[in-house]
Amino acid sequence: MKVQIGEHELEMGSTYLTELRSSNDILNDTEALRQRLQEDGYLLIRGFHDREEVLEARMEFLRSLQAAGKLDPDAPIEEGIIGPENKGGMWGRSAADLQEEFPHFLNVVNSPKVFSFFEQLLGGPILTYDFKWPRAIAKGGNTGAHYDNVYMGRGTKNVYTMWTPFSDIPLELGTLAMLLGSQNYEKIKQTYGQMDVDRDNVATGWFSDDPVEIVDMYGGQWATTAFEAGDVIIFGMFMMHASLNNTTNRFRISSDTRYQLASEPVDERWIGKKPKGHYAWGKTPSKSVKEARKEWGV
After folding, report:
1. The total number of structural domains that make up the chain
2. pTM of the predicted model, to two decimals?
């Protein structure tokens, strides 16, 4: 099967693209999960969330898209068909601001099961960023390759992203993809990986929108899979990831939420009832990633 990432078409099972592996076989072995997270850079867990709660949350997002005029008015709301303007949705804000409209969403990502899992994995009481990043990706949309640290690296580096899809997501709907081995790209980690988008104001914050270029230059292999409602993938701040293009006429709805030990420093941009978020990025003329990479020598 061929999939689209940016301008490139990649074949599943090729040099550039393989299948993510599930960690459900070691789900009850915390030490094995920690070791796999270090070795693979991610944990894919099938059926982690309650499926019905996830689908209830999906309907919250679809109702919001409908109210904004972004769904096809002639199609049933539950199908999530994109409207004629093909505009996505982004609900990035604090949990306090999301609570009234999206209670099922918060029940999913802030559930006791989520907290218990991260407390066991990280070995102590945890906190989650108050700011949440749910989004709906329209047709043609995708995300370029990046480390999360460039967006939220002012506290501990031991922050973990949980990506949650809010429906069954086949590859053509635009699944998340991990770049295997990228957590060991030391030169990239010490240059691009130390960037702060608010301090340095580098265009998109992506390292590249060309998945083939990175593999050819630095090795590794992209990996993705079809997801079902209830699945999650968890990864750290220095795991390069991107998304496949959404090539369908339906919205891909997903969220990014972050977790860390409560005892470690936290990036102040993403906590509190009114997190300030990105306060400088994009406010002045920015440097291109191409220019920055030339300076970094990567």
Report:
1. 1
2. 0.97
